[in-house]
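thought: fold this chain, then report.
action: predict
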Amino acid sequence: MDLHLNGKRALVTGGASGMGAALVKLLAEEGASVALNYRSREDEARAMADSIDGTVVPIHADLSQRDQTRNLFDKSVEALGGLDILVNNAGLWLTANIGEFDEKLWDDTIEVNLGAPMLLSQLFISHCTGQERPGRILNITSQAAFRGSSTGHVPYATAKGGLVTMTRSLAREMGNNGITVNCLAIGTMESPMIADALEDKREFYEARIPIGYVASAEQIASVATFLVSEKSGYMTGATIDVSGGQLLH
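observation:
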């Protein structure tokens, strides 16, 4: 299927590993140019960019810092000559029970998972409307946004719930401008972010998944690629469940 992504320009946050990396590769295969944001995985980001047949530009930014988030957007526009697609994928999944986490853990988790996506969406919308161009925003949320967290991740679940509501609100506001805004709700997935948890308690996590196994990053990325393509042009404000049945949304 031709997804009509040839010539499109995308910014993918958290693009050096996990679903973000798989998505960067698929977008490049479809002919898109990609700004690949990374925070700490510089070697992986640069190696991946060098290995992909296409335009992939690694750009460092710590999304817990507002000035770096703004700089990331500006550098992406400069490197690619503009943007047509924004994927807010970067996530911070820190573990602490409700009586244990401090203000910094809360602030950093909310900023990376919700604040940075809001700021980047604002910048992206201004960019697209200023040029009278359509655009695609995809926000990566979690089944925890709907089910909550029972394993020491209240800040994460809270931020991801906010991301769903933000998606719906932006979709309502921007529909007439040709900018679609959708969400992808993932469940347990093979990624560095939860690698330690899976190593310790894989059977526990797999028992919670009706489909019976942990998703690969590529499985999730294939759905994400569709959602930022021209084929999904009549979808906006939607949250698509790719949790293997954990959410049943």
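thought: worth noting. The two ends are 27 Å apart (CA to CA).
final: tokens above.
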